[in-house]
Amino acid sequence: MTSSPVFPTVPRTADVVIIGGGVMGTAIAFHLAEAGVRNIVVVERGELGRGSSGKPIGGVRAHFSDPLNIELGSRSLRAFRDFPDRPGADIRLDTVGYLFLLTTERQAADFEAGVRLQNSLGVPSRMTGPEEARRLCPYVRTEGLVAAAHSPADGHARPGLVVQGYARAAARAGVVLATHTTVTGLDTAGDRVTAVHTDRGRIDCATVVCAAGAWSARIGEMAGVALPVRPVRRQLAFTVPLTPPAPRIPFTIDFTSSAYFHNSDDGLLFGLADPREPDGFDTTWTPDWLELFREAVRHRAPALADLETAGGWAGLYEVTPDHNALIGRSSEVVNFLYATGFSGHGFLQAPAVGEIVRDLCLERAPCVDVGPLSADRFRSGAGVRPESYVV
């Protein structure tokens, strides 16, 4: 790949500067390069995919409550299935499905409505009873379980392999991947960004795309664009290799507690969102967090509660007030575009968003109307779009 160690400074000019070298930034770079844009620079302060993209759970799904998220998820699932051919990489996609475990009648009614909406948009999700949920995932305890929602076309993949697949294809097309390069400021004149300043030089540019994840609010401030994104730590853990091996199970989520688990190599991956987690950029992994997970699964999947773990990690969610993404072009700084604030759904929506931002950059109608995801919705009085199926 053409990356910054080859060059002592960044290129002096670019048609498009993409800030952020995670899955979103590399997906955007790939789709722009594929469309014929040649002078693209991706600026990443560390290694590619080492921010939030390096530490997600890897879930890919179209099982959402918001029709826009369903559409973005469905389009991305198709791209993940085609990834070995375009852009050309094995991402270890495992289509095991998603299984949401529901413990109240209200949850069941809400998910039934969601399934009807998903089915109308071509997603083959369905409701199941407790016994069927246990058949799909033998770890499940049915006591207190009202129903479950199963989406068999969903699953999980390896985020690092996706980032590298996009990045290698982009580099082959001439994209400069300026790693270990920190953005220090933006120059603006009138309603446009004119240059991106980095610790390795200035880049005069025609378009800037913010794909900086949890750090996007800071980049927005440099351009005078409000991007209401806050960082929140999420933690996960891995079991030791299991003997006998774990059965092949869906990506299983206890919706009440947010505890989730799925296969990972020779064991299982565990996760849970701590509702008490404060905002901040701390990514220290704290093993005592595991007790929250263990307490939750003692009620729903008791065989997991005492499994030995072999470490874990912490990463950052980039959260917006309504848990939906910010995708669009600034109405004030017209050559400043953004794709951020995915609230845990960025990896799984990246292929579709890469196409959409490509089209926005080229000033053509995108494949999906993302107007309702404009950052302006939080200040203009437009209706927010709350997403219910947040993990």
How do the helices and strands line up, and which of them pair or pack?
Blueprint: E1 13-19, H1 23-34, E2 40-43, E3 59-60, H2 67-81, E4 98-102, H3 105-120, E5 126-128, H4 130-136, E6 147-151, E7 155-156, H5 159-172, E8 176-178, E9 183-189, E10 192-198, E11 201-210, H6 216-223, E12 230-239, E13 251-254, E14 260-264, E15 267-272, H7 290-300, E16 309-319, E17 326-329, E18 336-340, H8 346-361
Parallel strand pairs: 1-2, 1-11, 2-8, 4-13, 11-18
Antiparallel strand pairs: 3-7, 4-6, 5-6, 9-10, 10-11, 12-15, 12-16, 13-14, 14-15, 17-18
Helix pairs in contact: 1-5, 1-8, 2-8
Keywords: Oxidoreductase
Pfam family, one: DAO
Organism: Streptomyces lomondensis
Shape assignment = globular
Structural class: alpha/beta
Distance between the termini: 34 Å
- Rg over C-alpha atoms, rounded to the nearest angstrom: 21 Å
The amount of helix comes to 25-40%
pLDDT < 50 runs, ≥5 residues: none
**Largest beta-sheet details:** 8 strands, mixed
SS elements, strand count: 18
Helical stretch count? 8
Mean pLDDT: 94
Instruction: List SSEs in N-to-C order.
Output: EHEEHEHEHEEHEEEEHEEEEHEEEH
Strand content: 25-35%
Protein name: FAD-dependent oxidoreductase
Keywords: Oxidoreductase
InterPro entries: FAD-dep_OxRdtase, FAD/NAD-bd_sf
Organism: Streptomyces lomondensis
